[in-house]
Amino acid sequence: MADFKDLLQSADWKTEKHVPAIDCPDKISKGQISQIDVSVGKQIAHPNTTEHHIRSIEIYFLASGEKFPYILARFEFNAHGESVQGPNTSTIFSEPRVSTYFKTDKAGTLIALSYCNIHGLWKSEKEISVG
Ligand SMILES: [Fe+2]
Q1: CA atoms of 120 and 116, how far apart (whole Å)
Q2: CATH of the domain at 126
Q3: What are phi and psi of 30, to 5 degrees?
Q4: What CA–CA distance (Å, rounded) separates 97 from 84?
Q5: What pLDDT sits at residue 70?
Q6: Average pLDDT for residues 10-18, to the nearest whole number?
Q7: What separation in Å is there between the alpha carbon of 91 and the centre of ligand 1?
């Protein structure tokens, strides 16, 4: 049986459409509320149909030297063209792009996970320093 960590796929978000792109400053001010933007399909669009879409994004923070991550935010995307008429019959689509805010006194690593309903879990990371 696979270890859960082996189920997390990663690649460069510029060449792999499932990987969440993390946009935030490389260095944030200690204790100041900072914005984090995470999107899937920033460079290469991911399909958004009833049968194939991005279902969720989660954002974690692992402070330097700590063992356990904090979960900062979790987003679900629930509209993918379905309606009472059936699959792919509406013009309503959630887009897998989110913004959230956090503050920290500690440097660390932001970790974003995206979940495609047919291609599984994808991970990206970004180091941030605090000054
Ligand atoms: Fe996919």
Answers
A1: 5
A2: 2.60.40.730
A3: -55, 125
A4: 26
A5: 98
A6: 91
A7: 20
